[in-house]
Structures are given as structure tokens and as C-alpha cells.
Design goal:
The protein is 36% helix and 20% strand. By secondary structure, it is α/β, with parallel strands linked by helices. The strands form three sheets. It has a six-stranded mixed beta sheet, sandwiched between helices. Helix 1 crosses helix 7 and helix 3 packs parallel to helix 4. The chain is elongated.
């Protein structure tokens, strides 16, 4: 089990974590800040130039998942991870990655009010808590590249209002010592608090075949879904199971994800070979045409809350913001194929073969 202690910068998460591991049999402290220090010493300055936060680096998020999973395999104990995750997409990616490794996460929030936080940040730093050896901050500091200034308290308050208060079990830390807070956390965990239900789909060990379905509204906007277990928006669909045809997989996934029944086999729009780019294995990606979804059918969409958070129709501009570049390229060619009434064969998002069109 992983106990993730979330909260604002200055909330005292690490001090609580040090006390908590003493209360838990087999408790192990894992500090993401150690990975931050590693990346700061290793990555070139250009990697930091467009980010104001190490958590924005994909390399940091991947390292956290891999390192937590590796330490858990080695120790077999309960890992206590103190770290601010105030961007919901970062939370999705990390917790979803841990779920794919077969690890359950308890999400606990060490809550400190705004006035107390501002008072703490005005005070000079206290000596490091017991168990510390090197002063390695989890976030903040001044990495190379001249990062933009951030408002850590404002960031926390926005996250608290938008999603964090509903996602994590909050422990009020006002006026309490780290030991007392840790005792409250241990009691809450023992009572089953903070469970984050995430689909535990194992990570693929090789190339996969995935099938999705595109639905449109009467304004030609495309239906997209927001997965709980990973960052970014996607097309409804999923991985083709062994012995299953891609079209049948698409029909099954639409029933499971949207609660919609397709009347027959949907027409194929594109088949795209996605090359392996570590850590991803690539594979074949197929998109089928679900046609226009009228308002009365759209009103019947029912999402599985443990897998999908939200759905929406998106125009091309909004889709470009929500989708990854490879999915957006696939969408553009799928729209072209739909207009021309013929499927397209893509490699890495680019048409190939005789009669290849130029430009989506």
C-alpha cells in the first residue's frame, strides 16, 4: 500500500511522514524530492526553461511511479510518500501508473488554512526534522533555466476548491504537532479512509491493438472522455482483448464506457501504426465512425465513475488543447476519411500507400 500525503508547500508533510512511518509496522519513507535533486543535477538547462515546477516534467512523474514501485517490491512494506500533487492530471498519471503496477494508493490531505500557511512561509525555515540527512526540497528552489515565479498558496487553494477536497481524505493539521497529525492519519487509514479506486489494468509488455469510436454532434464536434487513471483526454475505446476483433472491441468498450449500444459494426475510419517510443510499446490504433449522436442519445451517456471523470463534445481548437499530438493527428485524418467515405492507413499519424492524400 502507498500512503500519499498531499498538501500545500509548508504544510509539514515530510515531518508528518517521518512520524507516520514510526507508527506503521513495516513503514518506509519515500521522498520524491530525492528524484527532484537527481533530475536537477542530470537534465540539461533547456529541460527546465518552459516549466515552473519539476512536477510538469514527464521524466519526474515517470520516475516517481517507477521508483515507488521498485522500492515497494524491495521492501514489501507500506510506503509513505509526502508530496504536493495539486495538478489533477499529475495525480491521475502517477496514481494510475501505480495502479497499473498493482499498488493501491491512500490519498490523505494534510490541510492547513490559508492564514496559517502564509504565517509559516514568512517564518525562517526550522531545522530539519528527525530522520533527515540532506536538505532536499521536494519542490521549489531555483533550478537552472530561470523558472517562472509561482504562488504555492494560491495553487493549493485553487486545487482545494476545484478537485482536491473531493479526492483526498482531509486531516485538519491546525495547531497540532507532527506526531498528533500522524496519529490522526494512521487512524484514518486504519478505518479505510483515502482509498483511490483506480482501474488496475496491467501495463502492456509489448505492442497492443486498441480500438476507439468517434461520435459527433450536429455541429461536427467530436466526443472526448477524461480518464480518471491517467492524464489527458481520449477517444472512447480501449485495448482489444485476446481473441477479439477490433470492431467487437469497439462495440464492447462503447457499451462499458458510455452506456451506449451500437446498432451494428461501425465503419472503419483510420488504422494507425504507432511506433514504440519508450516507455510506450506502440502498436495498432483503429478509429471507427459512430456517426452523429443526437441530443436524446447524448443525454443517455452514462460514465463508469471509477474509469471516466467527464465527457464533452469538442471543436477542433478545443480538441487540440485536450488531446496529445499523436491523437490529434489521428483525429484530423479520421475526419478527412469520414468526409471522403474511405478508410486511411497511417503510420505514426501520416497516411501511407497508393493514393495517399496530402494534408488533412
Amino acid at each position: 500500500m502507498i500512503i500519499w500525503l498531499n498538501g500545500a508547500f509548508g504544510a509539514g508533510k515530510r515531518s508528518v511522514a517521518v512520524e507516520l512511518v514510526e507508527l506503521l509496522p513495516g513503514g518506509v519513507l519515500f521522498e520524491p524530492g530525492r528524484l527532484t535533486a537527481l533530475l536537477r543535477r542530470t537534465l540539461p538547462a533547456k529541460s527546465w526553461e518552459e516549466t515552473g515546477d519539476v512536477r510538469d516534467l514527464p521524466a519526474w512523474r515517470r520516475l516517481v511511479v517507477e521508483a515507488v514501485a521498485a522500492v515497494h517490491r524491495e521492501t514489501g512494506g507500506t510506503l509513505v510518500v509526502p508530496g504536493s500533487l495539486l495538478n489533477r492530471s499529475h495525480r491521475d498519471e502517477i496514481f494510475g501508473g501505480l495502479a497499473a503496477c498493482g499498488l493501491s494508493v491512500r490519498h490523505l490531505l494534510i490541510h492547513v488554512g490559508e492564514a496559517d500557511l502564509r504565517h509559516r512561509l514568512r517564518k525562517p525555515p526550522r531545522p530539519f526534522a528527525k530522520g533527515a540527512d540532506l536538505p532536499v526540497p521536494a519542490y521549489g528552489g531555483s533550478p537552472p533555466g530561470g523558472l517562472r515565479e509561482t504562488d504555492p498558496i494560491g495553487e493549493y487553494l485553487r486545487a482545494l476548491e476545484e478537485w482536491l477536497s473531493l479526492d483526498a481524505h482531509a486531516v485538519d493539521a491546525a495547531g497540532l504537532t507532527p506526531r498528533l497529525i500522524a496519529e490522526r492519519v494512521a487512524t484514518a487509514v486504519g478505518a479505510g479512509a483515502g482509498v483511490c479506486p483506480m482501474p488496475g489494468t496491467p501495463r502492456p509488455t509489448g505492442a497492443t491493438v486498441a480500438a476507439g469510436v468517434l461520435f459527433f454532434d450536429r455541429d461536427d464536434r467530436v466526443l472526448l472522455v477524461d480518464p480518471v487513471y491517467k492524464a489527458g483526454w481520449e477517444f472512447p475505446g480501449g485495448v482489444v482483448e485476446p481473441g477479439e476483433s477490433p470492431a467487437r472491441a469497439a462495440i464492447r468498450e462503447i457499451a462499458e464506457e458510455l452506456g451506449l449500444r451500437l446498432p451494428g459494426t461501425p465503419p472503419l475510419l483510420v488504422i494507425d501504426w504507432e511506433p514504440p517510443l519508450p516507455p510506450n510499446h506502440g502498436g495498432l490504433r483503429l478509429l471507427f465512425d459512430g456517426g452523429v449522436l443526437p441530443p436524446e442519445r447524448a443525454a443517455a451517456v452514462l460514465l463508469p465513475p471509477e474509469e471516466l471523470r467527464e465527457w464533452r463534445f469538442a471543436d477542433p481548437v478545443e480538441a487540440g488543447r485536450l488531446l496529445s499530438p499523436n491523437r490529434m493527428a489521428r483525429l484530423r485524418w479520421a475526419v478527412r476519411a469520414r468526409a471522403e467515405g474511405r478508410p486511411l492507413n497511417l503510420e505514426a499519424g501520416v497516411p501511407t500507400g497508393p493514393g495517399t492524400p496530402v494534408g488533412p
